[in-house]
Amino acid sequence: MEDRKRRMIRLDLPRPTDSSILGAQATPDGTRFALWSPRATRVELALVASDLTQVNHDMTRSDDGVWTVFVPGVGAEQRYGYRVHGPWSPESGQRFNPAKLLLDPYARAITGGVDYSGPISDHTAESNFTPDPTDSAGYVPLSVVVADTPAPAPLAERPRLEDLVLYETHLGGYTRLHPAVPEHLRGRYAGLAYPAVIESIKSLGVNAVELLPIQHFISEPFTVGRGLTNYWGYNTLGFFAPHAPYSSAGTLGGQVREFKAMVGALHQAGIAVILDVVYNHTGEGGHEGPTLSFRGIDHAGYYRLTGDLRNDYDVTGCGNAVDTSIGGILDLILDSLRYWVVEMGVDGFRFDLCTTLIRDTQHHVDQGHEFKQRIAQDPVLSQAIMIAEPWDLGPYGYQVGRWGRGWAEWNDRFRGFTRDFWRGALGGVQELATRLAGSSDIYDHDGRPATSSVNFVNAHDGFTMRDVVTYDLKHNEANGERNRDGADDNRSWNHGFEGDTDDPAIVAARHRTTRNMMATLLLATGTPMILAGHEMGRTQQGNNNAYCQDSPLSWVDWKTVDEWGDQLELTRTLLRLRREHPILRPRNFRSSFEVVDAAGRGLGRRESAWFTETGAEMGQGEWSDQGRRSLGMYVSDAEEAFYVFVHGGDWPMPLTLPDEPWASGYELVAHTGEPDEFDDISGSVLEPCSRIDLPECTVMVFRAIVPDTAPVPAQPTAAASDAEDAPEADVAPGA
Fold first, then answer.
1. Helix (H) or strand (E) holding 252
2. Strands (E), 76-217
3. Rounded Cα–Cα distance for residues 428 and 297 (Å)
4. Is the Cβ–Cβ distance between 272 and 209 less than 8 Å?
5. Are 543 and 474 in contact (CB under 8 A)?
6. Terminal CA-to-CA distance of the chain, rounded, Å?
7. Which of 64, 107, 258, 729 is 20 to 30 A removed from 205 (C-alpha atoms)?
8. Do residues 628 and 429 lie in contact, with contact meaning Cβ atoms separated by under 8 Å?
9. Measured in whole angstroms, how far is the alpha carbon of residue 49 from the centre of its chain?
10. At what angle are helices 327-342 and 370-377 packed, to 10 degrees?
């Protein structure tokens, strides 16, 4: 009965005939406003003056549920909202309340935040199911009419997935402490576009910034109640609007122009812009939360509801879930994606809790969902970079490895393994080989490339890389939740002391472990993602859930580079090697087949091979040895070859380099030891079978010297040929 009720309420929802008309579209003569609200009985456009006085205009409904009105003389910077009339019937999922001033879902700019002290809920304090008649104007943000401006210049060439190096960063926190950025630009779009900042990013060797959410977001009531704010931004309110507080140019459209200028500056430097987008839920929370946009426009038409339609069906952990099984909502999301690519110039997206977007009318996961189909068929979106966070919190929400061609995915198994391996929690090297080879156990199917795996050791949520080696326990007391928030399974190792210490042995060991984790990340097949600041020892002092910490605790501290220059130098070196040597960033999974030259002749070496410390290839006994902590990885193509040796044991050991035909010589090009630890062999070419004294917990990277053509068999000379054809001569006795 409940499922039938849920289905019926969707059958009468017409789809917008042309969603491109939605929102506010300014013309020389005025502005045309359009809103999709198919079950509303009346919609008023409220034009709001700077003194918050309002002039309302009734809108006209078309058969597809779109309400429109043209207002002459209205142009850019006009503030506005909607008042939507309809049944108050929570038992059928309808919570229309015209006392609540609502944001336009297609608004290109939004003025600001929410005043939770005001009457911003559609219901009374006594009951979630009794309407509150108090006007919310003055307590809620407003939509803004934005004039069209030119899109930023595109990248000269958008990076291919195999060339991509992601740099996940918080737009505000990255520049709040940057010494070269003028104070009024710190934490703003213009701050990230500042020349010194762009040079910092470019000099590291990354070619794409993945920005934590910049679509306009708000803080949650329980966060504000503790005197904190939502810092990360995973609480979206406007799918088209750049976050207003990140603007140094005002909030009446200035944020749009400033964002475009930022994108243009990054593109000019050859850096792609990828947005972390939150379409799975909105900042309205559950039905007990504020009514700011979707809920008041059509609660059951925008959100997933339980079978009885009285409550939100939440698979996000945030109170609500946007219902992409409804055509109008799917149009909204795809229109938003196209807008960010075409008008705002971005190059791709990372989708938060992406599984939510592919649930059907019954909330079941559907990998053939229309959301994915339309992206694949869209001439614009099909060319953009698409990265899934391949899970949500609902049934069967964990979808790692299942997104198919055209999608990359966050690989949390890489994160967990890398931390476990370098803290000594794992035995054997089978999984080490699998993760270094691109996690073929997860992604090598259906023609998917090896770049499908987005490899990472740390992300915005969880410990920073430095904190992984400094803390065994989370320290989230500053969040005001009595340290109950955040993950308890951090797979970290404090190296014998909880927190920072001056003990030189512990400090050296921590540095070595972070270098090893960074090397594992950047030498593995797949698409690497670095969390901003990890290249210079960023710390959050053990806080693994800093979502509410808009403070120095979360901001990138540029002074730490003085202590962590070794990490920065290694990161730059490994990224340079990836950039200069395509063999270190393959698009496809490697095989064990022999490499051939341009003429098709075998070169005596294979695309991929695995070795022991003795220089011999791994055998079944070595693969099954759970005490083994070292492994050599050999990769080659027709032009070049590399040999990477990973030693995770806490003991020194002799290392013998493989014999010919794997290489005629080896050149050490990077390592995770102390800077001067291998000075005796740096800059020289080592012979095959050379022996090296390898210290504990070290990764070594060698360029293997190999021919790019097979030797041509010698052709017999003419004299030799004649001699072969002549009759045998008599041999004199005794000769």
1. none
2. 79-85, 88-89, 94-95, 143-144, 166-169, 208-211
3. 57
4. yes
5. yes
6. 110
7. 258
8. yes
9. 39
10. 30
The whole-number pLDDT of residue 371 equals 98
CA distance 381 to 138: 38
Name the residue with tokens 């920065």: 568
Here the tokens at position 248 are: 């140094």
Q: Which of 317, 291, 316, 322 is nearest to 116 (CA)?
A: 291
Buried b (16+ CB within 10 A) or exposed e, 151-186: ebeebeebbebbbbbbbbbbbbbbbbebeebeeebb
Among 343, 352, 409, 550, which one carries the catalytic annotation?
Answer: 352
Whether 122 and 132 have beta carbons less than 8 Å apart is answered as yes
pLDDT in tens, 68-119: 999 999 999 999 999 999 999 999 999 999 999 999 999 999 998 999 999 9
Question: Is 220 an annotated catalytic residue?
Answer: no
At 426 the pLDDT is: 87
**How far is Cα 720 from Cα 214, in angstroms, rounded to an integer?**
78
Strand partners, 410: 454
pLDDT digits (tens, 9 = 90+) for 218-238: 999 999 999 999 999 999 999
Query: Helix (H, G, I), strand (E, B), or coil: what is residue 140?
Result: coil
**How far is residue 592's CA from residue 594's CA, in Å, rounded to a whole number?**
7
The DSSP secondary-structure symbol of 17 reads S
The dihedrals phi and psi of 409, each to the nearest 5 degrees, come to -140, 140
Q: Which two tokens stand for residue 389?
A: 């966070």
Cα 489–492–493 angle (5° rounding)?
A: 140
pLDDT band at residue 564 under the 50/70/90 scheme: very high
pLDDT at residue 2 is higher than 80: no
With beta carbons less than 8 A apart as the criterion, state whether 103 and 293 touch.
yes
Asked if 410 and 388 touch (Cβ cutoff 8 Å), the reply is yes
Count Cβ atoms within 10 A of the Cβ of residue 624 and give its class: 0-12 exposed, 13-18 middle, 19 or more buried.
Answer: exposed
**Virtual torsion, Cα 483, 489, 490, 493, nearest 10 deg:** 100
Spatial CA neighbour of 104 closest among 181, 44, 180, 16: 44
The encoded tokens of residue 658 equal 């493989």
Integer Cα distance of 371 and 82 in angstroms: 28
Other Cβ atoms closer than 10 A to 484: 9
Q: Which of 132, 210, 343, 389 is catalytic?
A: 389
CA neighbor of 700 nearest in space, from 566, 523, 568:
523
Distance CA 87, CA 89 (A): 6
Domains of the chain: 2-144 (2.60.40.10), 161-582 (3.20.20.80), 591-705 (2.60.40.1180)
Pairing of strands 272-277, 60-61: unpaired
Q: Tell me how crowded residue 534 is: count the other CB atoms within 10 A of its CB.
A: 26
User: What's the pLDDT at 716?
Assistant: 60
- Up-side HSE of residue 90: CA atoms within 13 Å toward CB? 14
Mean pLDDT of 660-674: 97
pLDDT at 726: 47
Give φ, ψ of 303 to 5 degrees: -115, 155
pLDDT at position 133 is 97
Residue of 407, 363, 365, 371 whose CA lies nearest to 389:
407
Report the amino acid identity of residue 58.
D
Q: Can 58 be counted among the known catalytic residues?
A: no
Nearest to 666 by CA among 647, 694, 645: 645
C-alpha angle 409-646-620 in degrees, rounded to nearest 5: 90
Mean pLDDT for the chain?
94
> Could you tell me if 166 and 457 are in contact, meaning their C-beta atoms sit under 8 angstroms apart?
no
Q: Is the pLDDT of residue 259 over 60?
A: yes
pLDDT tens-digit profile of 56-71?
A: 999 999 999 999 999 9
Q: How far is Cα 233 from Cα 235, in angstroms, rounded to an integer?
A: 5
Measured N-to-C along each axis, helices 565-580 and 504-523 cross at an angle, to the nearest 10 degrees, of 20
Q: Does the pLDDT at position 468 exceed 50?
A: yes
Q: Which amino acid is at 308?
A: D
Provide the residue count of the chain: 735
